[in-house]
């Protein structure tokens, strides 16, 4: 917000106007209709009708004016012992920030109190959750309602399948980014019959108000923005270790939850019916377990689902980079990649960077940039604003570090809700498939989402563009050798990055072939940043 009182009033007035407009949009919202040509019955997805644990309640629009509070960060030369978070993670940690980070509902009176030290109850009198402030639930509900407007495909799936309750009896423990968009997915799973317990896959990604809104309707959420390392693992354990409740499905983003259950609760892990993983890093770890013969449950790799990969991993990551770097000053951009790797950018390279360089990460983990090496007494850390730090060398050189070296595109910008609808719909179908698959269909290995389901995800999103599929004639289907109802691509089909495109930044000027099968984006950089570092590997940037 502006420091000028007059400007601040104008901003609050504008915010109130926007809330009113969003209410009008919500009232006009109607369910999406999909062409009959693209429909697929839930029976074709190998689901069955069973009892339902409870439906998602409806919520009336909130009429209260939303108050925006300035983020009052205290700056220090170096993190204190109590405030310093662990410098490294043995398991991956993607990093995203709240979608409403610029204007988030906060209660400054208890900002310094750990949620673990509070006793909170929702309006139903239950306290099986741990969030920043349950009183933020109304504002969180508004954000969820707004997100639903651009997730009509997922809402359509919810309406089609909730009568059959394909997830009745499913006890899903999830570890993802807790945002308004994820909340739409969680409430869809509940509407389809599942019981859910949820935690965040990253210490900075949680929207506190959304976590409160989910807790208010009875979803056990253990997460808040700004968790410590100890808090992070405590929250995961609270989701898994619940007396009288044992998970039978896992939805993970990054592999931390899967690792925790595998290591600490091996008996629970053996009884899991299926794991759904959406990240490159998490999938990589699943394949490692499978190769070592330690994966004793079937797992679904939805990261490589074609529709999800094309929109989420490629277009979304690429287009959100410039959004993210706008959080700092624009002198030099240095996103790093090679997902899940460590020390892609080292302290030696950081020492040789030019003054004013921006350092940021497009990889999933927090290990690609050696941020731990910057936590030394001779360097001064200065918090400019949320997710933007100046690291100052003794000679006065400043390097701008975004999101403390964690995932850039969500920490410092946003991801379109429509893109997240594709990812969430893919995750929901994968859970339905694994949970309802007959015994023997999936063994103890990692599988791709069946191509017909992948194409079904795409078909659900076509009406958003006012697009309609025509149906193949019998003659056309015979000519192509396809079933007229699909799938239209073989299971091995993937979008590939052309390998013949020359890369001018290569030191010897030769053609560089993007490494495969890496799928997410890294960025080539200017050679002016270093004396001898000319380029950084990239993948799928020219699609």
UniProtKB/TrEMBL annotation:
Protein's recorded name: S-adenosyl-L-homocysteine hydrolase NAD binding domain-containing protein
Keyword field: NAD, One-carbon metabolism
Superkingdom per UniProt: Eukaryota
Coiled coil: none
A cellular component term, taken from the record's GO annotations: cytosol
Positions of the S-adenosyl-L-homocysteine hydrolase NAD binding domain: 313-415
Keyword NAD: yes
CDD domains: SAHH (cd00401)
Cofactor(s) listed: NAD(+)
One of the GO biological process terms: one-carbon metabolic process
SMART domains: AdoHcyase (SM00996), AdoHcyase_NAD (SM00997)
Family listed: Belongs to the adenosylhomocysteinase family.
Biased composition range(s): Low complexity: 88-107
Lineage start: Eukaryota, Metazoa, Chordata, Craniata, Vertebrata
InterPro entries noted in UniProt: Adenosylhomocyst_ase-like_sf, Adenosylhomocysteinase-like, Ado_hCys_hydrolase_NAD-bd, NAD(P)-bd_dom_sf, S-Ado-L-homoCys_hydrolase_CS
Region Disordered: start-end pairs: 1-26, 77-124
Organism of derivation: Esox lucius
